[in-house]
Amino acid sequence: MVTIRKGFVWGIIILLILSFAIPAFGEGEAAKAEKPAHYGFLSLLPPVLAIGLAMITKEVLSSLVIGIAAGALTLTGGNIIEAFKKAMELLINTAGDPSWNFRVLLFTVLLGAIIGMVSRANGPQAFGRWAEKHIKSRSISLFITWCLGVLIFMDDYFNCMTVGTALRPVTDRFKVSRAKLSFIIDSTAAPVCTLVPVSTWVAYVASLMVPLFEQYKLNLNPYTVYVQMIPYDFYPWLIVLMVLVTSFTNLEYGPMAVSERRALSGKGLWDTNIMKNPPGDEFASLEKSEKGSAIDMVGPLLGLIVIMLFAMAYSGGFFEGKAGFFTAVMNSDSATSLVWGATITVILSAIFYSVRGVVRLKDSMEAVIQGAKSMMVALFILSLAWTIGKTCQELGTGVYVSSIMSETFPTWAVPVTVFLISAFIAFSTGTSWGTWAIMIPIVIPLVVAMKIDILPCIAAVLSGGVFGDHCSPISDTTIMSSTGGACPHIEHVNTQLPYALTAAITSAVGFLMLGFFDHPFVVWFITIALFFVVVYIMHKVWTGESPVKPQKALPADQEK
Questions:
Q1: pLDDT for 227-251, tens place per residue?
Q2: Would you tell me the crossing angle of helices 295-315 and 101-120 to the nearest 10 degrees?
Q3: Is pLDDT of 33 > 70?
Q4: DSSP states of 440-475 as a string?
Q5: 53 within a domain of the structure (yes/no)
Q6: Taxonomically, which superkingdom (predicted)?
Q7: Number of structural domains, the chain?
Q8: Is residue 494 part of a domain?
Q9: Is the pTM of this model over 0.85?
C-alpha cells in the first residue's frame, strides 16, 4: 500500500511539474502554429510514465490515466483545462471507433457472456472431471493448451479469450499458475499469427508493402516476400518454443518460478495480494446447474471457433465467389466477424442449454449479464491502452524514436538496428500494427538505398513489433491474455517479461549474425542453440527454489 501511494504521489507531482515545464519548451505554441512531426523527448513521457508507474504501483488503470494526462498536457502546451478536454476527446474517439475498437469491446463483452453461460451450465467443472480421467500429466495439460493456441491462428484477440476459457479447468486441476496459463495464451496469440501465412496479419503487412513496392519499382509479390521472410522471424519462433521448453522441463526462472511454486504448494493459483478475483474469474457466486457435462463447455467453444471461421470467410467474400476460403479468411473484416460469431454463439448456446434442459432461457440471460460484468476491468484497460496509443501517435513517439536511432550505420548493422528500434517502439506504444505502419515505410526505402536483402529487414520489423505486442503492459493482447487466463494483469506482465526479454535478446543476436552471414537456416539453428544455452544459464542463475511439478492430477478439493 505504501508503494502504491508513493507511486501515485510521484505521478501527480510529475503531472504538476509538466503543467509548468511544458510551456517553457514552447511545445504548445509550436503545436498551435503547425503540428510538429514529434515533440522531442516529451514524446516518450506517456509510455514511460504508464509503464513505470504500473510496475511500481502494480495498478494499471491509474498508471494509464497518468500517462494519458502527461501526453495531453504536452499536446496542449501545459494547459490543464485544455489537456482534460483533449484527453477526453482522445478516449471517446479511440474507444468509440466504430471500424475496429468498439467492435473489439463488444466482442469482449459477448465472449464474457458466453463464459457466463458456460459457467452457469457447470461446463468447466464437468470438463475438468473429464480431463482428470483422460489427461494424466501436468506437462500434457500445458502442451494441449499450447496446441490449441497454435491452432487458433486466424486472430490474436479470438485466441486470447478462447484458449484460457477452454483450458483453464484443466490447468487448474494440475495446479498450473494463472501466470503460466496467461503466458502460454499470450505466446501463442500474436507470435503465431505472424508465423502462419493465413491470417488477417498477413493481409495487413502485405497492404503496407504493396504501395512501397510500386513506388520503388520492386518486382516483388508481397505475399511471397512474407512467406520467404518467416524463417528470419526469430522472436515469434523463440517465444513459442519457450512455452514448450518450460512445459516439458524444469527450467523455470524469475517471477514465473515464484508463481509456479506458489501454485504447486497450494498457496493460490494467482497473487491475491494484487487482486482477490482477477478478471474472468468472477463466477464463484453464480448458481451452477447440476445437469452440466463436458459437452456444455466444449460445444459452445467449438461452435464459436467454427462460426468464427465461416463469419470471416463470409466477410471476405467466400460465399459470393470472390475468393477461396483461406484467402477470404485472410482478407476478412476480422473485428466485424468476431462480433457476428460471438452473437450467433450466444443465441445458439442459450437454445442448446434450454433444449437439453441444462439451463432455462431466463437463467441463461442472467448468466449473460453476469458474464458481461466480469469483463468490465478488461474493457477499461483496453480503452485506456488504445487511448495512450493514440496519444503516442499524435505526439510522434515512433517517429522520434526512429529519428534518433536510425542515424548512418553500416550495412551489417541494419537488421539488428531495425529490430531494436521496432521493439522499443512496440513496447512503448503497445502495438505491433502501429509499429509496422511506422517502420515498414522507413525500412523499405532504406533497403533500396543501401541495396541489401529485404527479407531479414522486414523480419526484423515484424519480430520487434511482436515483442511489444506480446509483453508490453499497455498492449491490448497482453491485457486480453490476462483476462483469458484469469490472472492479475501486473502479475502476468511481471512473470512473462523475463521470458520475453530472453527471446528478444537472443533474437537480436540472430539479426546481428544475419548482417554477416547470408545463410538464414544456419543462423536460425545457431540462434535456437544459443537460446537453449541462455535459458539454461538463466535457470541456474536464478537462486530461488525451482518448482517441483507433479506428474498426476491433484484432488479437486486441493485446486485452490
A1: 888 888 999 999 999 988 888 887 8
A2: 160
A3: no
A4: HHHHHHHHHHHT--HHHHHHHHHHHHHHHHHH-TT-
A5: yes
A6: Bacteria
A7: 1
A8: no
A9: no
